[in-house]
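Rotation project, supervised by the postdoc (A.L.). Task for the rotation student: set up a whole-complex structure prediction and record inputs and outputs verbatim in this book. Inputs entered:
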Amino acid sequence: MQETLTTNEKPESNKKDVIDEGVEKGLARLTPEKISTVINQVLTKETGARFKVYVETCMRCGLCADACSIFLSNDRDPKLSPAGKVKQTILEMINKKGKVSKQLLKDVVRIAHTECNVCKKCSMYCPFGIDIAYMMTLVRRICHKLEITPLYIQDTVNSHSATMNQMWVKEDEWIDTLQWQEEDAREEFENLRIPLDKDGADIMYSVIAPEPKFQAGLIYQTAVIMHAAGLDWTMPSTPGWDNSNMAMFTGDFEISGRIARAHYETATKLHVKKIVMGECGHAFRSVYDVGNRWVGWAMPPVDLVHAIDFYHDLLTSGRIKVKEQYKKTVTLHDPCNVSRGRGLHNKAREIVNILCESFIEMTPNREHNYCCGAGGGVINCGPPWKGSRMINNREKKEQLERTGAQVLIAPCHNCHSGLEDIVHHYGLKMEIKFLGDIIFEVMEKTIYQKDS
Amino acid sequence: MHSFINFIMGPMVWISFLIFFIGVIFRFFQVIKLVNERENFIYTYMSFKYSFRSIFAWLIPFLPVSTRKSPVFYGISYVFHLLLFLIPIFLLSHVALLEESMQWSWFTMNDAVADILTLIVIFSLLFFIIRRIVVPEVNFLTKLSDFGFILIVALPFVTGFLAYHQFFAYQWMVIVHVLSGELMIILIPFTRFFHMFMAPFTRAYTGSEFGSVRHAKDW
Amino acid sequence: MINKKPWDWDSEKKEIPVKEWQERFNWVEELSVSPDGEKIASIVNLDEAQFSACVNGEIWEETFEKAWGLRFLSNGNLTALVCKDEEWTVCVNGSFWETRFDYIWDFQFSPDGSFMGAAVQKDGQYGMAVNDRMWDELYDNISGVVLSCQGTSAAIVQVEPLGQGDIEGFSRGIFSIAVDGIAQPEKFMNIWDLSFDSKGKQVASSIRKNRIDYSISKNSQAWEKNFQFAWKPEFINKDTSVIAPVRQGGKWFLFKDEAPFWDKSYEQFGQLAIHGDGKKIAAIVSDRYGKWTVSENDRTWALHCDSMISTLFYSDNGDSLVAVFKDQGFWDIAVNGKPWNLKADKLWNPIVSSNSEILATRMEKEGIFYLVVNGKVYQERFDMIFEPQISPDNDKILLKAMKNGIYLRQILTLDKVL
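Outputs recorded:
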């Protein structure tokens, strides 16, 4: 049941009362020795110059506060400014030399896992460029090692570790889904294929596990786009097909590395030139910027192309042609991990302008966007935290409302789910779409010929 | 008394600067050692182009969005940081002392101008104190030591101002002025004052990651 | 291994037209060529939900509702995973296995092609099938299936039920290794990277004991020592020892039977290569962040690359250590540390002659396929090249390629190529 709120009715924050079984059971097992050992191990053995310099350089000027939409959503609650979160977590641990109480740890989990989207916007607002998202990830690393990570996200990490995908999708279910979508998509083109394990294809297309699990239609759409564009592509039948990575967000860097390695090795085994990935932001961050680093690949060893980049290429090269522009008024949400994380925001705008008749900007935008509120693994902490997440997303809701657009385009899965929650919760009249949804709707369903 | 004043205005100045330089070198050595041992990947991502792009962007007043969100604080802070260096370096009486002892000299500013600028510094510091008390998110972050830092910076300026105008106890004012100035110089490498050296590097690293890896602006 | 002597090493050129298949069938899928180059085949669509395999223009008598994974085995058998009457099985040269499944995937075969195995699902239960025989015991889930040269099979299986979001149950360990269908009693939190010994009897793996402790298991017996992480282990010394890359104190080491084996530590490890039962051991390693090289018996090559090394292996006689690597965006091959400088967009693993003197492979550069022998690029351009072969006398190359819709089987004398 969704509760609809108007702007003026702000519920009392009851964030501190949230019961997360994963956290509670984890805390119950902890001993003071274990707590201090783990904290000191992480803070002294696993950190280096960055951590030391960040802690010693911050002048506590508070300029980072205005970056944070969670801070803004809570009437500028000082406890929710980026540096305020560092003060209540890392600085407490340092001051107490790791000897912190379970009550403090409970707050620490809440702050690091649900009150920070690790969106990195604050490092653009700090005059010194201090990376507070890195500090919050360190806190999550401590929670991971103490085994007090919120239950829902831990379950997805468990799934990652056992199946190399986020949603316990079994190996046969994956292939079966692709074959089923291939069959269905023959509605559009009778000889359409989703080529499995095609050795030497130009493109390996990878997705996140929620697609085969809940949104298989997105694979259908992509297959149609690929087919119409006349591309040489494939999808792998083996684990490594999932590009998502929740381990990166719980500080389980080991599993995060194994996931990234599986992904790139899958692509390499198929001898593809590049990996094209669906509209997901955190997955992009994981394979482009985080997981690969743990494996020792300074940059992606196989060219990695996000859907925005890919669509932009298809539309500007004429491989996909627009039959008739989309009529409804649209606005665009910039996903942090591909705008601040990869500078794709201008290409996204060009795509929207090609596809749609009427585009309304939301502000702030591009690198300065507000996070959808779901990112950084926050939505993945699950139902127990949804109420507080909605409170923390008030600023985003107001930003969406100001646009007055009928359709909200969000080229990222996490953003999509988060914005979906905001729209329902606050009763906004907005449809949420992927870029792929709109391309599928407005494209000419003919196969690209080089000479045409 | 005379010999004490001679000491603090002579050898003690050298000792302060010696401690300062050794401290700075030591701190840098410490950081570089840590990078080499633990985070050598940092070198891979450091880029001259994007380091300087970021630093320059942040030196242009009110270019970064962040600075436009807090224009008063940022504006005062910008002027304050400039004056913090300009006043002591171009003050006539400082240069005169140097010329007397070392025969070094350079451009100096008019005393009346220096007087006004000093007042600006003092008022800036007062503003910082008030901001730390009044603005909730800053107050939440503030520790006693943050006021301590402001006090340490304020002392040489206030005493210098009072000494120049010879309002009272001139000799004592000069002594406190010299000592507090030396104290600040000594403390720089060992306290958060060291941000004056580290900030360009943290900025450069973030600028490099944003620029060369993420193809995005960081201001 | 496969006897290549009876193959036709004399006919200079044979052609099979393939383009016309496009007109005969609704569509033609990926082409597959037999090791001897005499047959070319593809899955073809005959009608709605009606598929078959077309081999040299002839189609199999059987048709299927679905078919995928068509491939020639090293012994020349043509196999595919097919669905008929809503049941899945393996089809070999047009004949079905008798056993039927609800799904079948991850098809594997032994080097001589005599054993075929795959992961299977029946009634929501999971196992493996080898040469038409399904495991007696099936499990709630399966992953990482492997087939040994001797036809034994192993996989990671889920032996305890797991409720939704049951992180406590997961932490207790619900996975075990099943060998030929029999799950071992030892359960772990995670198991990866199963590795058979040379006789197909023992299995080693990397394991996770709890949230933060990783280790290696040999026949499901965990090493006592814990590590920060571990990659795939391998058997050496007549299958008595196990070596594995492990992480300690943030650095990677090669360990043998719980003790350090190589002296040096590395930034990262990739795959291992072993020759002569462990006389020569090499590994893909990174010795400084973002730079990759090969370490042979703990001594690194001078050659480094910035992207990745995808494959590392020894020639049969151990004289050549071959690495396929990517540097500055292009693929290349290095033999004993010397690069070929191919600048390829796509590059396959080379095959190596019995005397280690000839290495042949194929690459794609700007959309055009080339044959590459010992680093020399053969001038003729193709639309596609399949895995080449080297004659038993090491004097000829069998080139299998597509050009303008025609499949070409060519025998090239070595002097013509080099």
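Student's summary: Residues 12-213 of chain B form a domain with the Fumarate Reductase Cytochrome B subunit fold (CATH 1.20.950).
Supervisor addendum: Chain B touches chain A through 51 residues (CB under 8 Å).
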